[in-house]
Design goal:
It comes from Flavobacterium kingsejongi. This is DNA topoisomerase type IA zn finger domain-containing protein. By secondary structure, the chain is an alpha+beta fold. It has one domain. Helices cover 45% and strands 18% of the residues. It has a three-stranded antiparallel sheet with strand order 1-2-3, with no helix packed on it. The longest helix has 30 residues. The termini are far apart. The structure holds zinc ion. Zinc ion (ZN) binds next to loops.
Length: 67
């Protein structure tokens, strides 16, 4: 019984790790910019609004309000 429980814990941990990696992967895809850069969290200094801007700004002026 003890062993089965242990194995179960291990697979749960593995599943959790996989899920975490998948989230990171999806986040990277969402943040990818067409220019090869990636979107960073930025704040509009005039309005205080949060948005995402390409890290290659000012070369690339792409922005997103949501990822
Ligand atoms: Zn860009």
């Amino acid at each position: 019984m003890g062993n089965i429980f242990y194995l179960d814990m291990e697979t749960r941990e593995e599943a959790y790790e996989k899920q975490k990696k998948e989230l990171v992967r999806l986040d990277r895809i969402k943040r990818r910019c067409e220019c090869g850069g990636h979107f960073k969290d930025r704040v509009n200094k005039n309005t205080g609004e949060k948005f995402f801007g390409c890290n290659r700004y000012p070369k690339c002026k792409k922005t997103k309000s949501k990822l």
